[in-house]
Design goal:
Keywords: Transferase
Number of domains: 2
Strand content: 5-15%
Structural class: alpha/beta
Protein name: CoA transferase
Organism: Compostibacillus humi
InterPro entries: CoA-transferase_III_domain, CoA-Trfase_fam_III, CoA-Trfase_III_dom3_sf, CoA-Trfase_III_dom_1_sf
Radius of gyration: 25 Å
Oligomer: single chain
CATH superfamily of the largest domain: Crotonobetainyl-coa:carnitine coa-transferase, domain 1
Helix content: 40-55%
Strand order of the largest sheet: 8-7-6-1-2-5-14
Largest sheet: 7 strands, mixed
Number of strands: 14
CATH class of the largest domain: Alpha Beta
Shape: elongated
CATH architecture of the largest domain: 3-Layer(aba) Sandwich
GO molecular function: CoA-transferase activity
Distance between the termini: 32 Å
Length: about 400
């Protein structure tokens, strides 16, 4: 069986995290992704440490199932190769700063002239409008600019960013969804279109609850750490050894929690009777709970909490996640053959399809490893490829 996007050809001119994450999604769904890279340097993510047998782990994570061709885009002959690829492509993806694609000759209007049915996806930092559209931006910068960093962490602990690339990979998800939707629309109408998304728009969407909260109350959201502004008790608690996380979102769960910790009288305490009461008296309730949790180990508490129907977990370190039987049972890590890394395992996309299963068929490509093959497929002969390489147009 093949993936649902089998037969879809994608020309990928992206680098770093956001764009390659988007095209990774398409590749895992079965599309053929031709990754265009710069001579000698390639994708910046190749050098994002730590390195594993010479490759950056960021690069390894988000570039499987792709083919790599090295083209010098500063040369007219290089641009013409891209145009030839676009002629028979279904999708083109770029994540340049605003205006750069046009200046290079790869803007939507130009490529639409070459292939009218093309789906053109632009993934940028700030979007295609507004005074900030020209600004460069990385995930952390946009976390700061969209308010995520302003509500992350604790009031006592200063500023903190989310430790994963939530905006890079979040915008990649929206971009991929847009591309798939545009492909469906083209199937129905025959028409291509431009798809746009950005880290900024993704950040604003992620903060939607907090934006609405401010509009409703006029109060700036507070940094809650692991706590939740709308519920209590909801957060992390110390035990005799490791910290645990619990989530109590209604009165029924609070009743169950009180039963587990042997404090049924708390349900009759006017400070804790309803969720609004508990939110108002969060600090004292958290202190009382932690006094109880410190009496036993995390493992024992989780057994009791789970038996009592309480949403809970040990706060696991990454090493513990790798050893968790749940990870193995979900088969989230897939073994991928690699020339230099003996036991390379990569996280699969977190979606499964019964009739068109997704696969990781190909390890992340070496720089330019598919250049000659792709050019042969365009009809170029060995002598032509050799001359292009001599002139610095390609790197085979």
């Amino acid at each position: 069986m093949s993936g649902p996007l089998e037969g879809v050809k994608v020309v990928d001119i992206t680098t770093n995290i956001s764009g390659p994450s988007l095209t990774m999604i398409l590749a895992d769904l079965g599309a053929e992704v031709i990754k265009i890279e710069r001579p000698n340097i390639g994708d910046d993510a190749r050098r994002m440490g730590p390195l594993w047998e010479g490759d950056g782990v960021y690069y390894l994570h988000i570039n499987r199932n792709k083919r790599s061709i090295v083209i010098n885009l500063k040369e007219e002959e290089g641009k013409n190769i891209v145009y030839r690829l676009v002629e028979n492509a279904d999708v083109f993806v770029e994540n340049f700063r605003y205006g750069k694609a046009d200046s290079l000759g790869f803007g939507y209007e130009k490529l639409k002239e070459i292939n009218e049915s093309l789906i053109y996806c632009s993934l940028s930092a700030y979007g295609q409008s507004g005074e900030k559209r020209h600004k460069p931006g990385y995930d952390a910068i946009l976390q700061a600019d969209t308010g995520i960093m302003g509500i992350n962490g604790t009031e006592e602990g200063g500023v903190a960013r989310a430790a994963v690339s939530i905006l890079d990979q979040g915008s990649a998800m929206w971009g991929a969804l847009g591309v798939v939707s545009a492909l469906y629309h083209r199937k129905e109408t025959g028409k291509g279109q431009k798809v746009e998304t950005s880290l900024y728009e993704t950040g604003v969407f992620w903060t939607g609850y907090h934006l609405l909260s401010y509009m409703a109350t006029g109060e700036e959201p507070k940094k809650m750490g692991s706590n939740h502004a709308a519920f209590a008790p909801y957060g992390d608690f110390a035990t005799k050894d490791d910290p645990i996380m619990i989530g109590i979102s209604n009165d029924s769960l609070f009743q169950k929690l009180c039963n587990v910790v042997g404090k049924e009288e708390w349900t009759r305490d006017p400070r804790f009777r309803t969720n609004p009461d508990r939110v108002k008296n969060r600090k004292v309730l958290n202190e009382l709970l932690e006094d109880e949790f410190r009496k036993d180990t995390a493992k024992n508490w989780i057994e009791k909490l789970e038996a009592g129907g309480i949403p809970s977990s040990v706060i696991q370190r990454i090493s513990q996640v790798l050893d968790d039987p749940q990870l193995e049972s979900t088969e989230m890590l897939v073994s991928v053959p690699h020339d230099n890394i003996k036991e390379l395992k990569l996280p699969r996309l977190p979606v499964q399809m019964s009739d068109t299963p997704l696969e990781i068929k190909k390890s992340p490509p070496k720089l330019g490893e598919d250049t000659a093959d792709i050019l042969h497929e365009l009809g170029l002969k060995e002598e032509e490829i050799r001359k292009l390489e001599e002139r610095g147009v390609i790197q085979a």
